[in-house]
Specification:
Elements (H helix, E strand, L loop, with lengths): L9 E6 L2 H14 L12 E5 L1 H4 L4 H12 L5 E11 L3 E7 L1 H13 L17 E6 L8 H11 L5 E5 L2 E8 L2 E7 L1
Antiparallel strand pairs: 1-2, 1-7, 3-4, 3-6, 4-5, 7-8
Amino acid sequence: MYNRNMKYHYYIGLQLPGDVSGKIADIQRELFDPIESVKPLEPHITLLPPPAVEHINPEDFALHARAAAKSSWPLELVLKEIMTFGSQAVAIRVESDAIHELQKQLVELLPFAAEITYYPHPTFLPHITLAQANRGHTLPSKLIDLYKERLAPLLPMSCTAGYLTLFERIGPRTYKAKPLV
């Protein structure tokens, strides 16, 4: 399963229900500024970031992850409020006791050699990234304020996740979602 000589490009996370994801993606498209931020990804919650699984065959890991997560569904989530990671990123904070348990179960599947880091926060903090600054830059406070303003009427919002997703990289800042059902 773990091979230091191979490098895979994927991460494990949760997709949001279509209506929730659509509302967030619409706001991301409206406020996206390529000068200030990187292209936003599909709205999701990352449970295991790419560095944690980069030397683990995705097909093998998917089997183990699906089995470990089997008792987690449905997973109730509350999209609580807008938060920032300094001026590097703006996100929606997600609350759920069960998501922490699920993430711990997935971490337990990782070999000791795997590195698990969560950028830009050092520990797992469930969130949906809305915008992330281009490398070496910061997000203008005006852009962060616009995200807060546009999302305020929607939050807090409750939704349910029903399965894990393997997000496979198919190009720069482009991933294909593969539900692990």
